[in-house]
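Task card 7
Instruction: Convert sequence to structure tokens.
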Amino acid sequence: MQTMCWVNKLAKGLVFFLLGLYVIDPVYAGADSSRVKNKDGQVLLQMVDGTVYGLELISDVESVFYDKDKHLVEGGNYISLFQVSSSNSANPAGLCGAGSEIWLYVYQVVGATLIEKTKRLVSSCLRSISMAGQNSGEAGQDADFSSVQWNLRGFSIEWFDHVDAAGRPLQLSNFVLHGGDFLQQDVLIQDNPKN
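Output:
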């Protein structure tokens, strides 16, 4: 009886593992993301499939990073880009004067138009927020956006340093498409169980 229970648990675990492999579609692999500088409040995004999209930016945005792929979620195509601006441009020698604020923007592709669906602050010197990939200690970590992963239901962000509204540390945040909006589901860092 105990053996059968153990076999059932093992089979369920294997099924969930295989489903996890099937669902994950990595977005960024560091060098695969492209950087485009803000030129007079505009950037042009050249996608892998040859389409080009123009976006208007506010003047504070220095540049954007994007992965050139369209991600299929619930029958729609989405692109993601990271807008980078200075944390404290008014006082470069002050607190976070050399730091940056990075916002993740997710757009839905509708014909030749990009429609903003959500935006999230993913890195901030001023608010002590950072993604795991940007804290690897590797050269070029500032351009590593591998912490954002797309899947068939939406995308997730793995955190190095971030907390929820109650101040609890987050491991990751899942953003699941539901009714046309990406709904956030946070996963807290769990303490190691004592043996």
